[in-house]
Amino acid sequence: MTSRGRCWKFGDNIPTDQIVRSDRAFASIPEMAKHVLENLNPAFARDVQPGDILVAGKHFGQSSGRAIAPKALKATGIAAVVVEYAARLFYRNCFEIGLPLLECPGITDGVSDGDTLTVDMTAGLVRNETTGREFRARPIDPFLMGMLAVGGLIPMASRLAGEG
After folding, report:
1. pTM, two decimal places
2. I want to staple 60 with a disulfide (CB 3.0 to 4.6 A). Which of 30, 41, 56, 131 is the partner?
3. How many CB atoms neighbour CB 78 within 10 A?
4. Who contacts 118 (Cβ-Cβ below 8 Å, separation ≥6)?
């Protein structure tokens, strides 16, 4: 599970309300995706391309734990989220919808907005292709990797139900 794309870098302590503003919470997911993180970087929602990589600092996705925040991020087409540390509910929500997420200490000091990154979920490795630096992520539980491999919790449950 490897992806390569442009780095979109954000800082620490980004709550779900900054990922998707509360006044957009009842819009469709494609509509929300047009406004993701717009208060922090208006260019992100406008210019993000499928396969790009979102990098952020500590406590990404904190606060309300709205499940729509990772869904809106996934709808932008990003290939992965790489953070110093994610809020626990946000972390789990990403895997449940099939959005790859790595926690990678030191990542924000080792990348710049616009760098090209390669993310290998299986190996837990992030490589900054622009600078040549590599970063090792925290290991992901095999159950969550299995969930990610099939596209999330619902596809996983469907497969399990079909096998029983």
Report:
1. 0.93
2. 56
3. 24
4. 2, 3, 4, 126, 127, 129
